[in-house]
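Exam revision sheet. Question 4 asks you to relate a sequence to its structure. Input first:
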Amino acid sequence: MELLHALSVQGRVISALTLRETRSRYGNRKLGFFWAFFEPLAHVAVFVAIFSSMSRTSPIGDNTGLFILTGIMPFQLFNNIVTNIMNGLGANKALLGYPQVMPFDIIVSRVAIEFVSISVVFIFCIALAFYFGIEIKIDNFLQMMAPVALLVLFATGVGMFNAAIMHSMPSYSNIYSALSRPLYFMSGIFFTMDFLSPKILDFLSYNPLLNMVEWFRSGFYSSFDSSLYDVEYTVESTLIIFVIGLLAERATSKKARQIT
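Answer key, structure tokens:
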């Protein structure tokens, strides 16, 4: 009974935090949710323009914009979760003074918001593409969801690990931003794994994000069934990073609750 009561209290806390964060992010800012739609569409527009100027066609399917979208959205999900976990504890420092609110509750609420927001934006973009006559046939929905679930766990692990470092090094967010910037060009947003030379592929295949994007596209496109992404490596690396992040969060949870 005590366990059920504790889970019930934690569930109510997470729900309240999620509602508070949603209102703060989208309710008090007129351009809040508009930016969530505009950002991925802007990325798509830029890459479509680049592809067109180079007379390059989409590696998969007939529409370049749709191809870029299926790379941008998983990457945005990863990047947004990591960034919001890193900044979440500092932004909600006062709430940690309440004994019912734990650092992990804030993390869960922020992950939930990002997942729902990106999902809504992706569905909207797909509906928009369909409205303009772009043929869309999702091949395997479950095959799409598997890498998305791993992506959420992977991003949460990275975010928790980074947040733990930031307790001792507040400027680490700037360092991480600079170090992670190459991931944008190394995670398969505008290419598939078979486009790479064997030497480059041997190096980039260690990037879990690249494997997840390739896996996601294999489920999305009926005309694309890549055999180059490594499911076993992706699962193992995701679980390792998540456990490391969880241990880092546990090790610094008491310090995170200290109000300065």
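Marking note for examiners. Residues 103-131 form the longest helix (29 residues).
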